[in-house]
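User: quick one, fold this
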Amino acid sequence: MAKQDKETYDSYEKDVYDNPPAGPMGVHRGARSAASRAMPYVIVIIVALLAGLLFWSIYSGEINNLKMPWSSQESSTTSSAEKSKSGESKSKSQSDSASGNKTDASNADLPTDSQQNDQNADQNAGQNAEQTDNATAQQAVNTGTEVRVVNATNITGYAQSKADVLTQAGYTSVSASNPTGNVPSQTVVWYQNETDKATAENVAQTLGISNVQQSDGLVTPIVVVLLD
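Assistant:
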């Protein structure tokens, strides 16, 4: 009898691989939706439109007029910087103006040459007046000055009588004496220094004498010589 050596699918023992689950497996995928299939075409169209718009903007120059979201911020910053510079310039201008006004005011306070000359003239006049006052004070009558009355006449007691007249006029240091040397030719009032001139003139006026002279070598500041 002939033996069949050919083995078929049914000749093997069944295992888990002989009963696969239902549906696609492995590289097989399920059916996609219409939206997911159309999305690549939509993306390509959008990219093409954007590329065309960019090319047209560059070619026509309209790209310079496009305002980006950050451009307004940059414009605001630039405007603020310009305003700050303008404020600084204005402040500097006001400061320079105030400085100029202050300089003008300072210059206005300075005396002119004419005013300076007037001030110098006033000072000189004041100094001259002060010197005059000092000279007048030096030449003032001093009733405490020592006065000697010399009797060169033949009248006894004549010098003492004139000394009494001076004492009554306020003089406090008056003495009477006789001549001891040469006598002048007429009645005279001699004085020693310029500071005694005013006093000598007052003595002469008190005694009714018109001849007043300065003389060197006097021992007494003022000497009255009485003659006939």
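User: anything notable?
Assistant: The helical segments are 34-60, 71-109, 113-138, 158-168, 197-207.
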